[in-house]
Amino acid sequence: MPFLWPDGFTRVPEEPWTKQQVDALALNYDTVENHGWYSNLDHTVEQIGEYARRGDILIDYSGGTGILAKRLLDRLGAREVGIIIVDSSPKFPRLALEKFRDEPRMAFRRIRYLNDESRLERVDEVLGPAILARVAEWYEFLSVYHEGVLGWIGGAEKVTGAAAPEDVFGDRLEIMRTAMDRVFNDAFEFGASWTYITCELRA
Ligand SMILES: C[S@@+](CC[C@H](N)C(=O)[O-])C[C@H]1O[C@@H](n2cnc3c(N)ncnc32)[C@H](O)[C@@H]1O
Question: What is the whole-number distance in angstroms between the Cα of residue 110 and the centre of ligand 1?
Answer without folding.
Answer: 11
